[in-house]
Amino acid sequence: MLKRNLNEEEESMRRARITCFVFLLLFISGLVSAQIPNPEEVLGFRVGTDRKVADMHQIVDYFKKLDRASDRIIVQEVGKTTLGNPFIVAIITSAENHANLGKYSQYQQMLADPRKISDVDAEKIIDAGKAIVMVNCSIHATEIGACQMSMELAYDLASKNDKWTEEILGNVILLLVPMHNPDGTQMVVDWYKKNLGTKYEGSSMPWLYHKYVGHDNNRDWYMFTQVESRLTLKVHNAWHPQVIMDMHQMGSSGARIFVPPYVDPYEPNVDPILRQEVAKMGTFIASEMTAEGKGGVMYSSIFDAWTPARAYHHYHGGIRILTEVASVRLATPVTIKFDELSNEVKQPSVKIPLPWKGGKWTLRDIVDYDYSAAKAVLTNAARLRENWLRNFYRIHKKAVTRTEPPYAFLIPENQRDLSTAVKMMNVLRMGGVEIHRARESFTVDGFQYPEGTYIIYMAQPYGGFAKALLEKQEYPEFREYPGGPLKTPYDVVAHTLPLLMGVDVMPIEKPFKVQSAKVDKLSLPKGELNAVNNAYGYVWGHATNDDIVALNRLANKGYKVFWASESFVENGKTYPPGTMIVRNRKGLAEGMKSIIKDLSVEFEALKAKPGVEAFALKPVRLGLYKSYTASMDEGWTRWVLEQYEFPYKSVFDRDIRKGNLNRDFDVLLFPDLRTNAIINGIPEGSVPPEYAGGIGEIGVKNIKEFIQSGGTLITLNSASDFPIKQFYLTVENTVESVERKDFFIPGSILQALIDPTHPIAYGYERGGAVFFRRSPVFSAREGKSVVRYPLHNPLLSGWVNGEKYLYNMSAIVDVPFGKGKIILLGFPVLYRGQSHGTFRFLFNSIYYGAATRREL
Ligand SMILES: [Zn+2]
């Protein structure tokens, strides 16, 4: 009680101080500009104050106030986020430029497509245009400094009238995205405030800071699976910025800020002009900040520029300036002694000429560093406005006048999964890629292609983006020392969409001529239904993801659905194992009719019951394990399951500890998690007790009972270690203790051999492509090996060291266990929502897990 009274007294004194302070500020700011509200007066604290953070609502509210008060700022709501919050962008420039925004965005469109203008026109636009800078704050919501800083930056640009401000406002149009992940900002601020003043202050949140993908939300810049990625594209593609800042934070004990240039390698389709511009801007920031006396500014370290997943801009004429500032515990300061700093940042070097001396590090320091970096970027963009615009034009001019092979990529309409092929082309189209269709049949290199073939010409503004995603990656060798291990890439190294998605695409190395027209809209192919009276039932295929969605819709409506477990002949046609069969019943015809409206499924009537064994399927009670270690793979799995209409329930540690799992579930699915994370969870004492600990020994026992009583456990990628060790399977992960110098595959696409007679692989062909990343390699002495690696180097795209460790080893194993089974899916079958080609290994496993085999 006494404590509380004291606090109240302190609080009222503090309020009085703030009120005085605010009046004083109002007085001073009145001299600068009449009504622009500053962040401190609106928030009630100075931005960056220890233990104080503005949440999503406060930030949106502040920007709306700025919009109303200033003729230099327009705030637009681009759309709603995944959780329905506003995703805003503030367009900041002089009032005069604001009056001509349409004209300037038009200029950008013209410079971005040199097919439409002459070099003379281009020079006129370069003379008259503005540099476009986009600043994206805090996509990783715990890296909260940037979104706090954005309010100060916007306020200064709205209110100041000094020479610098005028120069920026006159020459630059700033697209400021104050929160690149508004949902996450709200979540982490709520979590932080809830635990403020407790021993859990500054602890990590025990769930993802994006509903589905958490930290992977900045690995989505070519697949555009998430709402926020698509909203960003809307802004980006309307403006084609020359400079994009992505403001992040990193660990506490390294440099105070990282700025580009990046380390090798660059993805080969990034124009060399752009690479130099990245270096130009990066070193400019570094020199400005060092000149301001800010220590610990470092470049050429850690971060590379290989995957397009983080760098959409590099294929669209803009530089990506990544900044990574050292973190605190959200808003709680930290102290780092000089001795505790990493060795790399202690001694002056070319990369870091002015090291930081150690000491206290606060949110305000982060805000100051972020502000300085943004200020330097704006200064450079304003002063070199003309260079930025001209080089932007040159990059696109090179792209549209490209003359070297490949000339095009062809996508035949005759595809195993045309629906997924269309999805792939729509992804490219979102990235500005033009797709044409042949209006006649034509011959290239001795092969004839029919009319209707899709053509992606390389000589187009974003041909490089298409090429990067359609070709195979050859990751260059950068070794730690001659003969030593490969330098660890910062991220995965393969991103060949046709392989990931299972789409047939042909690169064309020779010039060719064909009448073709640009496609304005690519609709998903429709299905087919030949309904007959008194049919026994209907069959459809198993080779596409749409086929599975159709299965979900019918099974969940209670229709009796089967997979033929052997091939059979009917209507003079041979149907392979896995063919889907649905028994006729009232309403089925209507149900199928509605399915073929949006799914590319072909239903054929069966006059009589085929004499064949089959798996009888049922709606599966699926439990998806959700750990408080906040697994991104769990989030991606949820996202994919929802996209493909699989009902599921999240299963928490407490549910598994409680036991009796067969009552609620047929199948338990464990996303990519280490055994320690599953069993022990987050250590006691580092989060509030309700989130600490994993499933524990009791949970292990309960899962064992669940499987032995007939349940199915499916494990994704490294989670396979859990049942292998805990349930003593005679399946071994043969690369578990192999050193990185001997075996290393940093996110590559590999050839795999598939057994299409096994239910997990129904609908597949004998050969396929799988994504391998931190994956196990199985030697199985029990169960059935469903997918294995070949007896030769399986590399299709990316990089492999130590391929002999893969020869003839298994990637997917189906292990009977008691009355149930354990299905080890030993690679990321749903990899970041991209590997459409291997989704069905999971989809099949789910149904197979709850199926019974019997005479049809
Ligand atoms: Zn980050």
Notes on the structure:
The chain has 856 residues and is of the alpha+beta class. Helices cover 33% and strands 21% of the residues. It has 24 helices and 40 strands. Strands 28, 29, 30, 31, 33, 34, 36, 37, 38 and 39 form a ten-stranded mixed β-sheet that branches. An eight-stranded mixed β-sheet has the order 1-2-4-3-5-10-6-8, sandwiched between helices. Strands 20-26-21-25-22-27-40 form a seven-stranded mixed β-sheet, with helices on one face. β23 (568-570) and β24 form a beta hairpin. α7 packs across α12 (363-383) and α11 crosses α12 (363-383). The longest helix has 31 residues, at 2-32. Residues 1-9 and 18-33 have low confidence and may be disordered. It binds zinc ion (ZN).
List how many beta strands DSSP finds. 40
Helicity level: 25-40%
Oligomerization status of the protein chains: single chain
Number of helices: 24
Q: Beta fraction of the residues?
A: 15-25%
Overall body shape:
globular
**What's the story with the biggest beta sheet?**
10 strands, mixed
The structure class reads alpha+beta
The termini sit apart by: 74 Å
| Mean pLDDT figure | 95
Gyration radius, in Å: 29 Å
Which consecutive residue ranges, at least 5 long each, have pLDDT under 50?
Answer: 1-9, 18-33
Bound molecules: zinc ion
